[in-house]
Specification:
The protein is α/β, with parallel strands linked by helices. It has three domains: 207 residues, FAD/NAD(P)-binding domain, CATH 3.50.50.60; 118 residues, FAD/NAD(P)-binding domain; 107 residues, FAD/NAD-linked reductase, C-terminal dimerisation domain (Enolase-like, domain 1). It is 32% helix and 25% strand. Strands 3-2-1-7-19-18 form a six-stranded mixed sheet, with helices on one face. Strands 9-16-10-11-12 form a five-stranded parallel sheet. Strand 14 and strand 15 form a beta hairpin. Helix 1 runs parallel beside helix 8. The chain is globular and about 70 Å long. The N and C termini lie far apart (66 Å).
């Protein structure tokens, strides 16, 4: 008898990754379930793809405003056109994803159900009135926007990242809660595309929690200077209330004192939370608390339930979701066959499209802080982007780069906060995951020239090892 696997959330990146790895496996019957309308997954519909689409429009205006060599009136961003083109592209991308899922059903033992799946018992599902009792269940339902529970929040309108991506007009001023990945990307978009006066609430001393402090400090200075953002660091929201004119009033605490901020709109860029509310987990032994999923992608409370992607709360990043899906698929087969399961492990690899993508932040592997915390002996090379002439010639001289190298020469980590840091991350991923010796990396001229900052870091790190 075939082993029956049900995937809940088959349109998302993690779910489709599982499905693709199991669809042609002998002895597996696959039921794919998703109630998405139009269907396509978070990344395509509300995440990285549409957000980069809207950022690009503001990036063009920023480049024109930022370059003193250009003359003439500064163009406005046509928000109607931005949203229209974003919707057209999103619709096209989503249709390709749906077609990919439909294509999987051409296999003999693969079925797709466009409906809602709800647990009615351990490993028993109701899907549109139909009962399924699969041998294995994969939960890949993604995440939803998180709005913080602060006093008064239910009395004022709150705009989330999803709302911003669809907005064709904004008011004159706004308060931004949340300065993580979402806030770092969307705050400059609001300022550049609409001209809003923004006050940003940052709980810590600087943004970019995963970065070494100089990177957060550099980004903070850049945002205040380039986008005129009022960023309140070490500040905490206390309560909010509506104003008489339809705006919002927020009371915050900073340095032990309360301050009041008023604006027309309130934005919550306060992260995302696992989408489990409508799964019926209360009817099972599963408890979706922190740490509820093993590194094998199995739920701690049921070894035949696998949880992948944003919903497991481990690391809400697209490439991680896909890799977790691949791991889950392999481990389902291993569990079925009585073989050892493998834990999912990945090298830290994040890119944040900060500064409208003009000043992106990327990190692969260790930062200096994480290497120190791990007790690894290492040396650090740091270089300002302005020290490399190519960045000056391109009128993007802000930022810096950093290389972390073990005392045996192994490249352990890299960070870049500068123009073109995002595509350089792949090059550095190869060096780090292959454990290359910094002294053996090629040092010669090549085009394009912006990666010369990496050459400089390599030379500096090699020299420190010699010393």
């Amino acid at each position: 008898m075939n082993t029956h696997v049900a995937v809940i959330g088959a349109y998302g990146s993690a779910g489709v990754a599982v499905a693709q790895r199991l669809a042609d496996v002998d002895g597996i019957r696959l039921t794919l379930v998703d109630d998405g309308e139009p269907g396509g997954g978070l990344c395509i519909l509300r995440g990285c793809m549409p957000s980069k689409e809207v950022l690009s429009a503001a990036e063009h205006r920023f480049a024109a405003r930022h370059d003193p060599r250009l003359d003439g009136p500064l163009p406005d961003v046509d928000l109607d056109m931005v949203v229209q083109r974003k919707n057209e592209h999103t619709s096209d991308f989503a249709s390709h994803r749906r077609a990919a899922v439909d294509g999987l059903t051409e296999a003999e033992d693969v079925e797709f159900l466009h409906d809602t799946a709800t647990f009615v018992d351990d490993r028993r599902l109701d899907v549109g009135g139909r009962t399924l009792e699969p041998d294995y269940i994969v939960i890949a339902t993604g995440s939803t926007v998180n709005v913080p529970e602060i006093p008064g929040i239910e009395d004022v309108p709150v705009q989330t990242s999803a709302d911003v991506l669809d907005a064709t007009e904004f008011d004159d001023s706004g308060i931004v809660m949340g300065f993580g990945y979402v806030g770092v990307e969307l705050a400059p978009y609001l300022a550049e595309a609409s001209g809003m006066d923004l006050t940003v609430i940052e709980h810590d001393a600087r943004p970019l929690d995963e970065a070494d402090p100089p990177f957060g400090d550099e980004l903070l200075e850049h945002y205040r200077d380039a986008f005129d953002l009022d960023i309140r660091t070490n500040t905490y929201e206390q309560r909010v209330e509506p104003t008489d004119d339809g705006g919002v009033r927020m009371v915050v605490e900073a340095d032990g004192e309360e301050q009041t901020i008023e604006a027309d709109q309130l934005f919550a860029f306060t992260g995302r939370q696992p989408a489990v509310d409508n799964l019926g987990l209360e009817n099972t032994s599963l408890e979706s608390e922190s740490g509820w999923v093993e590194d094998t992608m199995q739920a701690c409370d049921d070894e035949r339930v696998f949880v992948v992607g944003d919903v497991n709360g481990k690391e809400p990043i697209l490439h991680v979701a896909k890799e977790q899906g691949f791991t889950a698929a392999a481990n389902i087969r291993a569990h079925r066959d009585g073989e050892a399961l493998e834990a999912y492990e990945n090298v830290h690899h994040h890119v944040v499209f900060s500064g409208l993508g003009v000043l992106p932040y990327a990190r692969v592997g260790h930062s200096a802080e994480s290497a120190r915390d791990a007790g690894i002996d290492h040396v650090v090379a740091t270089r300002e982007a302005s020290s490399d002439g190519v960045f000056k010639t391109k009128n993007v001289a802000d930022g810096l780069g950093r290389l972390v190298v073990g005392t045996d020469g192994t490249v352990l980590g890299w960070q870049g906060l500068h123009y073109h840091a995002d595509p350089m991350a792949k090059t550095m991923q190869v060096a780090i995951e292959m454990g290359l010796d910094v002294r053996e990396l090629p040092d010669r001229a090549y085009h394009p020239t912006t990666p010369e900052i990496i050459d400089s870091l390599v030379r500096d790190a090699a020299a420190k090892l010699e010393d």
